[in-house]
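[Discussion] Sanity-checking designs against the backbone

I'm trying to build intuition for which residues belong where. Below is a structure token string of 424 positions. I'd appreciate it if someone posts a full sequence so I can compare it with mine line by line.
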């Protein structure tokens, strides 16, 4: 099967420039690329679609190129933004680039002749401005650029000249990769369509070659929220920013309507197995949600940490039997009596602080279960805060030593967000 069929059946494709031509291009070992903005030292859940698209490409024998925007990051992509991005320093971009590279190495094989990791600062920073305008700028129509969705959205709020150059630089990236690496396919989010088309046109004009573009849909949940966004902020791929347990729980809490779709997007389980999800509903979907959570956690953090998260969640929320006939290709542990170390997020308190008196309102904030004291008070007043599975009913209640069993207590915000508190 052509990788294009795999990507389409899994829902990865929103637009392509020339599907028949692209299918022919991908009928033999070819090169493709995706760019990643170094705006933080970690990618987040929203980045999994472009990452996994490259993984699918590599699994089908193609050569992926992951571009870190060390050069374009000095300007900032205006796409999908209502205001100008904060300009990063060279040092920030370098640190962020190294963090992202380490994460990508978990997904792609960068061995000899395999995937390639490049930083576009290598060829963008040394550009001579006058030569660039004469050689590249002459191929761009300002009228067409202003018609691009990424620019139209910003014109009312104000589009800076530095941002206006972004399309030219991204198009130059594509042109450079086509010339130096034979790369004729760029993939990216739906907001990148105009930038990708600009690169396709530049390659046609400068090299006389046909290049291709593919965009992924913007992934939203069934409830309409952007994928990877929670009340507590983004869900990161770095366990320093989002604990493995919280990462696992994010996927367990998937809306029933999203289970089949997310299994197609975020796992490599066979499509014929995933199709059977349609036969189940309500609580019957819980085993599928746990498999989804396990598989994605294993992809990002490895099978051992995924197993620990799964078993910790089972001890906290209860084991459920996962029959062997449900998604049999999954490596999730199916024996309910297994045990493992506890990886629920932990906060340590000294006995002195407890003796001095710390309220559950303060503790909810300190553990990160609530963003503020007012949010913690509302949670308690609404009956959503628990200590050792008992509801906390008084916003003035203090933490007591007798609540600690074997040196720890379990604090919950709602029934799904958990934090363990230990005595130092």
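Best answer:
Here's mine. Compare freely.
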């Amino acid at each position: 099967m052509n990788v294009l069929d795999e990507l389409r059946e899994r829902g990865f494709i929103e637009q392509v420039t020339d599907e028949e031509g692209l299918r022919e291009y991908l009928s033999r070992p070819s090169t493709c690329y995706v760019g990643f903005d170094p705006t933080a030292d970690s990618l987040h859940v929203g980045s999994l679609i472009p990452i996994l698209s490259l993984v699918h490409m590599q699994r089908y024998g193609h050569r992926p190129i992951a571009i870190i925007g060390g050069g374009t990051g000095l300007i900032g992509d205006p796409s999908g933004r209502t205001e100008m991005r904060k300009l990063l320093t060279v040092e920030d971009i370098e640190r962020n680039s190294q963090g992202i590279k380490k994460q990508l190495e978990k997904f792609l094989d960068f061995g000899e002749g395999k995937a390639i990791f490049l930083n576009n600062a290598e060829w963008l920073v040394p550009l001579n401005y006058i030569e660039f305008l004469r050689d590249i700028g002459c191929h761009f129509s300002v009228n067409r650029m202003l018609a691009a969705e990424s620019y139209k959205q910003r014109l009312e709020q104000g589009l800076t000249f530095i941002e206006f150059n972004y399309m030219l630089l991204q198009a130059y990236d594509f042109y450079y990769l086509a010339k130096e690496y034979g790369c004729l396919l760029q993939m990216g989010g739906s907001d990148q369509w105009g930038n990708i088309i600009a690169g396709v046109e530049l390659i046609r004009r400068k090299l006389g070659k046909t290049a291709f573009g593919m965009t992924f849909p913007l992934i939203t949940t069934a409830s309409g929220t952007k994928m990877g966004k929670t009340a507590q902020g983004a869900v990161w791929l770095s366990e320093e920013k989002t604990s493995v347990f919280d990462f696992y729980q994010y996927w367990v809490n998937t809306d029933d309507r999203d289970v089949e779709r997310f299994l197609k997007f975020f796992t490599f389980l066979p499509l014929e197995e995933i199709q059977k999800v349609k036969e189940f509903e309500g609580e019957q979907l819980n085993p599928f949600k746990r498999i989804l959570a396990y598989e994605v956690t294993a992809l990002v953090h490895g099978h051992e940490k995924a197993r620990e998260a799964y078993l910790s969640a089972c001890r906290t929320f209860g084991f459920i039997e996962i029959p062997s006939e449900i998604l049999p290709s999954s490596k999730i542990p199916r024996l309910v009596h297994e045990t493992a170390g506890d990886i629920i997020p932990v906060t340590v308190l000294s006995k002195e602080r407890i003796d001095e008196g710390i309220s559950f309102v303060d503790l909810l904030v300190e553990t990160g279960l609530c963003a503020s004291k007012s949010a913690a008070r509302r949670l308690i007043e609404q009956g959503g805060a628990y200590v050792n599975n008992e509801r906390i009913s008084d916003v003035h209640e203090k933490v007591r030593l007798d609540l600690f069993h074997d040196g720890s207590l379990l604090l919950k915000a709602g029934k799904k967000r958990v934090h363990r508190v230990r005595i130092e």
